[in-house]
Amino acid sequence: MARRTTIRTTTETLLILGSSGTPGCPVCGGVMVTLEQGRMLCGVASEQLNRWLESGAVHHSGRAGSPRMVCLYSLLICLQNNTSA
User: Fold this and answer.
1) Which of 6, 25, 43, 57 could potentially form a cystine with 71 if both were Cys, beta carbons 3.0 to 4.6 Å apart?
2) How far is CA 37 from the centre of its chain?
3) pTM of the prediction?
């Protein structure tokens, strides 16, 4: 009889974002991160993130001369909805 081995790894990460000098999301007050940070934190492709931005599903803000910021809360909701479908 063949022997079966199962290996499980668990990783826990705590990430705290925010700064008293950084404005929150203009829609929901959530934490804002740069596009690149949002893409890296959620592990989504740039194309997918751009589709969510164009559809209005991800809250965003940006001023001329400053990086475009996205709402981490709305980004996580999109990610959850996308993976549960």
Assistant:
1) 25
2) 8
3) 0.69
Instruction: For the chain of 85 residues, list the mean pLDDT of each consecutive stretch of 10.
Output: 75 62 83 88 88 92 79 91 70
How far is residue 19 CA from its own chain's centroid?
17
* Rounded distance between C-alpha atoms, residue 67 and residue 78, angstroms: 21
Structure tokens at 77: 């909701």
- Residue 58, classified by CB atoms within 10 Å of its CB into exposed (0-12), middle (13-18) or buried (19+), is buried
Nearest to 35 by CA among 72, 83, 63, 76: 72
Q: What ranges do the domains of the chain cover? A: 32-84
Q: Helix axis angle, 35-42 relative to 46-55, nearest 10°?
A: 120
